[in-house]
Amino acid sequence: MIGTCPAMLQVFNLIRKVAPADLPVLLTGASGTGKEMVAQAIHERSLRSQGPLVPVNCGAIPRELLESELFGHEKGSFTGALRTVVGKVELANYGTLFLDEVGELPPELQVKLLRFLHDFTFERVGGRETRRVNLRVISATNADLLELISRGRFREDLYYRLNGITVPLPDLKDRGDDLLIMATVFLRRYANKTGKKVSCFTKDALKAIQSYHWPGNIRELIHHIRRAVVVGESAWISTKDLGLEAPSHKTNNEVNNLGLKEAKAQFEAMLVAEALARSEGNVQLAAQALRTSRSVIYHLIHKHDLKGYALVSGDQ
């Protein structure tokens, strides 16, 4: 984790204080601000560091499967339950359970989670045996839980169970010079990873990074840096490489005729660049990620002039 601004120094201070306390922790902040990294940092500095850190994304699992995902199920407990499955709660025994996007929990699961947090006992779906675990709960949300409580969408008693102490994470746009520090660190990281001789940003690129509002926060910053490393053709990263060029002033006719075409081309180039960055130049893996063929990837590399990457065919 990187940070020198007052808001991040406060986050680091809270991490040091809460890590050994074994209290439930609630991490708040917009999507992409680094809540999962904070959860990992707290776990690694806690008395449970030798145990597992088990994440559960409450917003990504279908409602009908979430109880089974958390508490497990017995063989034959429902259609398709062909074997007994251990839930995340049991897997986190003697460690930390990380409930990401906890504000997305449906009401019926909120009740069961509240009951579980009372004494850390539970039953698997379809089971009768009461089981007990010893774990710590860290939760994270990008929603305002107090607002959800006022609207009847989140239980107030569950909120106080989860909120032993709150660690708020600031938006990237509010971190001052940390933004440029992180951009430089990510640039060097991905340049080393791809073997490209990219070392710094142009002045215009630095200004663009500082002036952009970064709605996707750190996750979006990483995306733009990866793209820049892939498409850049010199040692200096430009605003064009970053995809942060200021929009040109076009007439209404020009926007109507070219806007959609340009937007589609830019999005297509960014998707291919991201896939190549993630696969470290492996064209086969990039093609699989985008659900297309290697020949299409090679065509798009040529079409969008994505040069300078150490490409691997994937046939070996």
Mind sketching the topology for me?
Blueprint: H1 6-18, E1 25-28, H2 35-44, E2 53-57, H3 63-71, H4 88-91, E3 96-100, H5 107-119, E4 121-122, E5 131-132, E6 136-141, H6 145-150, H7 156-162, E7 165-168, H8 178-194, E8 200-201, H9 203-211, H10 217-231, E9 236-237, H11 239-242, H12 252-278, H13 283-289, H14 294-303
Parallel strand pairs: 1-6, 1-7, 2-3, 3-6, 8-9
Antiparallel strand pairs: 4-5
How far from one another are the termini?
Answer: 36 Å
Architecture of the largest domain in CATH?
A: 3-Layer(aba) Sandwich
Here the CATH topology of the largest domain equals: Rossmann fold
Instruction: Write the CATH homologous superfamily of the largest domain.
Output: P-loop containing nucleotide triphosphate hydrolases
Q: Please work out how many helical segments DSSP would assign.
A: 14
Give, in spatial order, the strands making up the sheet with the most strands.
2-3-6-1-7
How many DSSP-defined strands?
A: 9
> What low-confidence regions span 5 or more consecutive residues with pLDDT below 50?
247-252
Q: Which sequence of SSEs, written as H and E, runs from N to C?
A: HEHEHHEHEEEHHEHEHHEHHHH
Describe the structure.
The protein is an alpha/beta fold. The chain has two domains: 6-170, Rossmann fold (3-Layer(aba) Sandwich); 173-303, Helicase, Ruva Protein, domain 3. The protein contains 14 helices and nine strands. It has helices spanning 6-18, 35-44, 63-71, 88-91, 107-119, 145-150, 156-162, 178-194, 203-211, 217-231, 239-242, 252-278, 283-289, 294-303, and strands at residues 25-28, 53-57, 96-100, 121-122, 131-132, 136-141, 165-168, 200-201, 236-237. Helix 8 crosses helix 10 (217-231), helix 10 packs across helix 12 (252-278) and helix 12 (252-278) crosses helix 13 (283-289). The longest helix has 27 residues, at 252-278. The two termini are 36 Å apart. The model is unreliable at 247-252 (pLDDT under 50).
